[in-house]
Structure formats: C-alpha cells, structure tokens
Design brief:
alpha+beta; Butyryl-CoA Dehydrogenase, subunit A, domain 3; Nuclear Transport Factor 2, Chain: A; 2 domains; RNA_pol_sigma-70_ECF; RNA_pol_sigma70_r4_t2
C-alpha cells in the first residue's frame, strides 16, 4: 500500500484523535500514530480501496492492545486516574476533528466504564461516522455484534448527556469560579457548585494529592479554599482551551503546576478534575 506525504498530513489528525479518545493519553496516541504509519509504509504491496478505514483499523487494534495492559496498570494507580489533558493551541483546520463531541474530560472519564471493544465501536460510529459494515470489518466482528456494542456503550455514556459544551457559556462559569477565589467569596463559589459536585485530584503518586474523590459542595469548597491559602506568592492561572473546553492552567515556582477541568451542566459545576501528575501535564502549557 502506497502512503504518500499527503495521506500522512491528512490522516494523522484523525488517527491521533481516535487514539487519544481510546486511551486518554496524548503520549501514547502520538506514539501509536507513528507506529501505525511506519507499519503501513512497510506493508507489502496490496490494493487498498479505503486508506482511511485501513489505517483506522490498524490504529484501533494497536490501541486495544494497549488498553488491555493499561487496565491492569490503572488498577494499581495511586489515587483517581484522570485522562491526560489535551491543550488545543491553534485554529488549524486539521485540528477540527479534535473539537468534536466526545473530547471533554467528563466524557473521557466515562469512557473508562466501557469495555475496550465498546469504546472502539462507539467512537468509530459516533465520532468518526463509520458505517456498521466498515466497523465490523475493522473489528473483525459481525454487524449485529457491533450494533449491540454501540447500544451498550451509548447507554453507559448517557450520564454525560446533560453536559454543556458551549464554550463561551462555560467560560463565564470558569471566570466566576476564579473571581470567587480572588475575592475570597466562598458563598459565590457554593452557588456555582452542584449539590452533587465531586472533585478528583490526579497526582499519580508523584505529587501530594487527595487519594479519594471529595464529595459535597461544602467539602469541595473547603478543600479548594484550603489549597488557595497555601499557594506560593508567584502562583497564577490562565484560562485556556483544554479538551475543547475552558480550563485553568496553573503555574507556581515558574513552572506549570496543574490543570483544572470542569464538567458543567446547566451553569453549575458537577465535577472538578485537577491533574497534578507531572507526567500528564502539557509540556507546552
């Protein structure tokens, strides 16, 4: 199969987007994209009618192999596991596929409740709009089996149906979140938090972080204000596009300190995700 430079430039964002959504890891997705293209370059000459489907099949299979070992590693992970945040830095048309639904931190976390095959079928159908016939060929399963996998995945992911993906509306919530700390207005923060809010901190055993999720708005607010009081003098935050939504990039001691993402429904914060594991922080933050 002949893979041209044009094929590489056109399909690389697609494969990365598929790999990232499957694995929740920028680093692993980037590595597997390169491996997929390398193997395609080295493949014996054969007639391939649909390079996109063929490469997606190769990428999916490699991701499924990684997911099998990743599940064992995550069972031993110290504290809550959160996906690696994806900092979106440009308006390049090639990144348009990254902006589609199914990229938010809440969505990626819910993907963890799916089996690897449910996750693959759901993404190939819902995000990348492949037909069931194409998916069945990629997954080497029957079409009816793929339909059932998709249906089960859809049902499991129904919990994030109410999520707001309107960037500007959510930006106003995040700005108010910041303002509540700047003015030390705990009452204002409590109004922003849902009665069922949960806060997750992912330190991965590399840095100090809460080992269990924190529940209820009072406990979450107390935890956040406790952290704020201990912040260094040179601590500051910026609002940036992370996983297609406004998030806080925090800096301290002249380096990136953490990334804070939100799950927002109806103008209220349902979940807060604080990624502190240095191995997951964007290098270009």
């Amino acid at each position: 199969m002949q893979i041209s430079n044009e094929d590489y430039e056109q399909l690389k964002p697609l494969l990365f987007s598929l790999g990232y959504r499957l694995l929740g890891s920028v680093t692993d997705a980037e590595d597997l994209v390169q491996e997929t293209f390398l193997r395609a370059y080295q493949a014996e000459e054969r007639e391939i009618n649909n390079k996109k489907a063929y490469l997606c099949k190769m990428m999916t299979n490699r991701c499924l192999d990684v997911l099998k070992s990743a599940r064992r590693k995550r069972e031993q992970y110290v504290g809550p596991w959160l996906p690696e945040p994806l900092l979106i830095t440009s308006d390049d048309p090639s990144e348009a596929i990254l902006q589609k639904e199914g990229l938010s931190m809440a969505y990626l976390r819910m993907m963890e409740h799916l089996t690897p095959h449910e996750r693959a079928v759901f993404l190939l159908r819902e995000v990348f709009t492949f037909s069931y016939r194409e998916i069945a060929s990629m997954m080497e399963k029957k079409e009816d089996n793929c339909r059932k996998l998709y249906s089960r995945a859809k049902e499991k992911l129904s919990a994030v149906k109410g999520e707001s993906l309107h960037y500007e509306n959510n930006r106003s919530v995040v700005d108010r979140f910041i303002h509540s700390f700047q003015t030390e207005d705990q009452g204002d923060l409590l109004e922003l938090l849902s009665d069922h809010v949960t806060l997750y901190t992912d330190g991965g055993g590399k840095v100090r972080a809460a080992l269990r999720p924190i529940y209820t708005k009072d406990h979450v607010a107390a935890f956040l204000f406790g952290i704020a009081k201990k912040r260094p003098n040179d601590f500051y935050v910026e609002v940036k596009n992370v996983n297609g939504q406004p998030a806080l990039i925090s800096y301290a001691d002249s380096k990136l300190y953490n990334v804070i993402c939100f799950y927002i429904v109806g103008g209220q914060i349902q979940d807060i995700y604080i990624i502190m594991n240095p191995e997951k922080l964007p290098s270009n933050g």
